[in-house]
From TrEMBL:
Keyword Hydrolase belongs to the record: no
UniProt GO BP: gibberellin metabolic process
Enzyme Commission code: 1.14.11.13
InterPro entries, alphabetized: DIOX_N, IPNS-like_FE2OG_OXY, IPNS-like_sf, Iron_ascorbate_oxido_reductase, Oxoglu/Fe-dep_dioxygenase_dom
Top-level taxon of origin: Eukaryota
Any one Pfam family match given in the protein's UniProt record, by short name: DIOX_N
Catalytic reactions of this protein: gibberellin A1 + 2-oxoglutarate + O2 = gibberellin A8 + succinate + CO2
Species whose genome carries this gene: Leersia perrieri
Keywords for this protein: Dioxygenase, Iron, Metal-binding, Oxidoreductase
Signal peptide annotation: none
Protein name, per record: gibberellin 2beta-dioxygenase
Positions of the Fe2OG dioxygenase domain: 217-320
Length: 365
């Protein structure tokens, strides 16, 4: 286990946040007994009891650029596998996805250089990736709400050109690699989204070809994640790298490294996702679940901490504009009409009031 003093020297002040929330939790437990059945900060949170292999789908017939040479039967079988995984798991992995391994390796190297800058450089207003640096959980009121991680949550519009005033120092290649990764993941995400839409609407349906509307560089995000070693792991099972959540988008494409730590809820238990070299992970977001009338599942997931090893990942989020109505694949829908902006505002209100996201339940008819 790394020494606390050594850990604090070059990392975001997550230890300070942890200790402050620990003291707050101990104070609350001595002054206000929790309701029957509610977890306290000292209640052990069970870790995953098994490791799973997500459905692994070869999507080369959709992404190879030689789609005409692929048979209709092959494409139909691939689409059926994607739709089945989205409905049963809400998660799946893809290979032959069109995002080159050399590009992903370059992204990993650039991330390491970026995140190993001094904390002051990352958190200052120097303009690193349009001031998109985040760490921990500013709204956390308990340890179960603290994410032991740091990230650059970058709007695609923020990496479409080198805006004036950005100071990248010697990270000049970061910009180009990040843009290439965003473009490649965006192409994959849109292809998969159209396939999933057509599986419900019928192949070649006009709405499926346009789906999802309102998603462009002004609305979609690329998130560069790093999970530093956590000196409290694994002794404290409430030390999350990323707290349990669902994604508030249509679709997420994730590249994780070999370290592992991603877990998802399957049925009523947590399962760990086994990393597969070269594969990308895809998961359904809340908006797709709503649009599909709950056919596709937005599944709760989390990242666990590691005591000795840092973990990196890159995630692309397919999001519409704030004023975009989410709509439905067919009527009647279990959800009332809402826009993405309404959804995000309600999520933020819930987190502020209760510390957790209620999500789609707020929009049921």
């Amino acid at each position: 286990m790394p020494a606390i003093a050594e850990y604090c020297a070059d990392e975001p002040p997550l230890v300070d946040s942890y200790n402050a929330l620990l003291r707050l939790g101990q104070h609350n437990e001595t002054t206000t007994p929790p309701p029957r059945g509610e977890l306290t900060t000292s209640t052990p949170i069970p870790r995953a009891v098994s490791e799973c292999e997500l459905p692994l789908i070869d999507v080369g017939c959709l992404t190879s650029g030689q789609q005409q040479a692929n048979s209709a039967e092959e494409r139909a079988a691939c689409a059926a596998a994607i739709a089945a995984a989205a409905a049963e798991w809400g998660f799946f992995q893809v290979v032959n996805h069109g995002v080159g391994q050399e590009l992903l390796d370059a992204m990993r190297r650039e991330q390491a250089r970026l995140f190993h800058l001094p904390f002051e450089a990352k958190s200052s207003t120097a303009g690193l990736l349009n001031d998109s640096y985040r760490w921990g959980t500013p709204t956390a009121t308990s340890l179960r709400q603290l994410s032991w991680s740091e990230a650059f949550h970058v709007p695609l519009a923020g990496i479409s050109g080198k805006a004036a005033g950005c100071n990248y120092g010697d990270l000049t290649t970061l910009w180009d690699v990040t843009r290439e990764v965003a473009d490649a993941m965006s192409k994959l995400a849109r292809t998969l989204a159209r396939v999933l839409a057509e599986s419900l609407l019928g192949h070649g349906a006009a709405a499926g070809e346009r789906f999802p509307e309102g998603c462009d560089d002004a609305t979609c995000f690329l998130r560069l994640n790093r999970y530093p070693p956590c000196p409290f792991s694994p002794d404290d099972a409430s030390a999350f790298g990323l707290v349990p959540h669902t994604d508030s988008d249509f679709l997420t494409v994730l590249c994780q490294d070999h370290v592992g730590g991603l877990q998802l809820m399957k049925g009523s238990r947590w399962v760990a996702v086994k990393p597969i070299p070269g594969a990308l992970i895809v998961n359904i977001g809340d908006l797709f679940q709503a649009w599909s009338n709950d056919r596709y599942k937005s599944v709760e997931h989390r990242v666990m901490t590691n005591a000795t090893t840092e973990r990196y990942s890159v995630a692309y989020f397919l999001c519409p504009s704030y004023d975009s109505p989410i709509g439905t694949c067919r009527e009647p829908s279990p959800y009332r009409p809402f826009t993405f902006g309404e959804y995000r505002r309600r999520v933020q209100e819930d987190v502020k009031k209760t510390g957790k996201k209620s999500g789609l339940r707020n929009f049921l008819v």
